[in-house]
Amino acid sequence: MADIRNKLFFYKKVLNYGFGVLELDSYGNIKDANDNFLFLVNRSILNFENRNFLSFLSDTNEFRKNNNALKSAINNRFEFKGKIELRIDKTIFNFYAVVMPEITDASLERILVILTNITNPKNVKEEIDRNKHIDIKTGFFNREKLFSDLANISKKREFTLVLFNLDNLREINLEFGYDVGDIVIKDLAQLLYDKRPTKNTVIYHSYANEFAMLVTVHVTRWDLAEYFKRVSKFLEKQKFKVKNNIIDPKITIGSAQGNKKLFQDADSAVIYAKKHSTPYYLFNPEFSVNSSEEAKMKSIIIYAIDNDLVTPYYQPILNLKSNKIDGYETLIRIEDKDGNIYVADDFLEVARKANLYTRLIYKMFTTALYYYKNKDFKFVINFYKEDLLNPQLADSLLSTIEKYKIGHKIIIEVIKVDKFQNYYNIDKILRGFKAFGCEVAIEDLGHNYSRYEKLGDLNLNYLKISKELIQDIDTRKDKEEVIKEIIAYCKNANVKTIAECIDNVSIFNKVKELGIDFALGCFISLPQRRI
Fold it and tell me: What is the SS3 string spanning 374-443?
């Protein structure tokens, strides 16, 4: 144990001093490189990964002796200390190198190469200037280079700009970790390069979850549409395997043609595609109407936040055993300056895009929790998984629950559970809420109902059966059988069932007949501003 602590301390010390660190396998192939090394040489990991470290050694007379000693050290598992010279893409770098093989029970685990840059900065200044526009994560051009190129394109001919948005990067980072997200970004960059529409295309990593392609030759709208069809179908089928995780990327494509406002128009096309749930969209002037509508909604959201017009509504939940209202589901609404009320579908997506979502949700739930402290009902609060994995939002909510001492009144409901890929992180958060007396519910099994048995790991109190199963249960025997199985599982696990979207007497009678515990919907009551 002491040996492990000493190693960890040493590695931390190495990183803190800003040294470059390479990790090699037993054959000398580069498996990883730290950011300090990539910064020193102004390159991406793509330049080095799986290439043999010895292939970068130069063969000049001054360093030939040390380079040969280094080769021998790596091949024979010896330690090495000395000056070496690397040739990277025709650029010479001088380093003081320490080579440390890690051997356990006569088996070589890995080789660490620790490098201190001793190159004269004047010799690499020109190279650094050339590479300041390179994105270190992907090896392609960065956002600064994109806008520089767009500012200097010819006004006498037409260009095409294509934006690729990785819509679920935030979800990937939260679910699997930022290191996995970085690998997905890198792999996706190479994939897009391989699938570029023409060789006359420049690739950029223009933002954390966004790539850009600037096509410098004329492409007809028809040819571009055909390219979108092919590439969107290809990307839809792609699965990235990273550290034993299967990642399913969700990508939206937007494009614009011309020589003015290309980025603005392509970005508007991405927004349009997302809003209309289409995988791609090519900008046209008619879209300006939709863009202005989104801008208008953004201003309404800001006005509502600033003027305490983020308003919770409450929909009654009927106990089907006692025929009494046992609680209320909390629904978000906002109001504009003229008193018009907007429901969640009108503004949540706009709020996310405008970076207003967290402020909006925090405002809504702090208002609701203050209201709950003087009520004697159970209250359901809906969250997306990403909301609960947002430390700022989750901590604020827990603090407010503790402040008002109302944990026993609160049911934390996680919606869109069909998007879960594993339950570990969300389980930790839910346990935190349970420690404050809250109960836990899961909503929206939908077409993934076959996975409901996995939910036992979350120690649920309630399971809400989604509208996908409930809406036509009175006419669909197949759905009725599925719900019977779910009810049987829940009874065995001591989990209460809730049916949503009870819109007519026929559905109401059917869910009651099946033995579901609670129900809500327009047939029972519309959402209310006050209880």
Answer: CCCCEEEEEEEHHHHCCHHHHHHHHHHHHHHCCHHHEEEEEECHHHCCCCHHHHHHHHHHHCCCCEEEEE
